[in-house]
Automatic annotation (TrEMBL):
Residues 1-35 form the HIT-type domain. SUPFAM superfamilies: HIT/MYND zinc finger-like. GO terms for cellular component: nucleus; pre-snoRNP complex. It comes from the Eukaryota. The gene is Znhit6. Interacts with FBL, SNU13, NOP58, NUFIP1, RUVBL1, RUVBL2 and TAF9. Interacts (via HIT-type zinc finger) with the RUVBL1/RUVBL2 complex in the presence of ADP. One of its GO terms (molecular function) is zinc ion binding. The keyword Phosphoprotein applies. Keywords: Isopeptide bond, Metal-binding, Phosphoprotein, Ribosome biogenesis, Ubl conjugation, Zinc, Zinc-finger. This is Box C/D snoRNA protein 1. The keyword Endoplasmic reticulum does not apply.
Length: 198
């Protein structure tokens, strides 16, 4: 025991790695060294000393951080009245344009990623789009797409044989080599049962 130097040590402090023999010695060492006994999850470990246990510890630490961040993002006090007001205005503008705009509850990934806005000067929506090309297992996200832009113009940088980016064109080869009339644009119907995909 590193505190009393009399008995055989049974315990090791996770924080400072000092050996103790009993609860009394544990308490004494905490007082003497101002140690809280909680393992430092961010302590430096050299590559030579790094083991599978350290890797598991790091993984669990990152999971805890992720859970804490997610819980904080869902907390109602984080979301200011300004954000609610902007969302309310966005819904009103959409209703006036005969658009059925639906928003997910706070904390959902789609809600967090969505960057759709309404420009009051230009009086038009700038949409957040996700293009999914199922035959190539490709997915692209577009931000700030004006509502007066046609689907043909939106898809031109992706599937046009002449104007599309060479790297994207190569990945979406099935679509670029097919005649334009064979390419169908579909929109997923939301709020359906999990197994019922349309």
């Amino acid at each position: 025991c590193e505190t009393c130097s009399e008995e055989e040590a049974k315990y090791r402090c996770p924080r400072c790695m000092k050996y103790s023999c009993s609860l009394l010695c544990v308490k004494k060492h905490k007082l003497a060294l101002s140690c809280n006994g909680v393992r430092d999850k961010t302590a430096f470990v050299s590559v030579n000393e790094f083991t599978d246990l350290n890797l598991l510890s790091d993984y669990r630490f990152l999971e805890d951080v992720g859970r804490t961040a997610d819980a904080a993002a869902r907390h109602p006090t984080v979301h200011s009245p300004t954000t609610k007001k902007l969302l309310y205005c966005l819904r009103n503008k959409a209703r006036r344009c005969n658009i059925d705009l639906r928003t997910l509850p706070v904390g959902f990934t789609k809600r967090r990623e969505n960057s759709t806005t309404f420009n009051f000067m230009e009086k038009k929506f700038y949409w957040h789009l996700k293009l999914i090309f199922p035959h190539c297992h490709a997915e692209y996200t577009l931000k700030g797409v004006p509502d007066d832009k046609t689907l043909a113009d939106i898809l031109k940088p992706y599937i046009d044989p002449v104007e599309s980016d060479p790297v994207v064109c190569q990945r979406l080869k099935i679509y670029t080599v097919s005649p334009q009339s064979d390419v169908q644009v579909l929109m997923k119907i939301e709020n359906r049962k999990q197994n019922s995909i349309r």
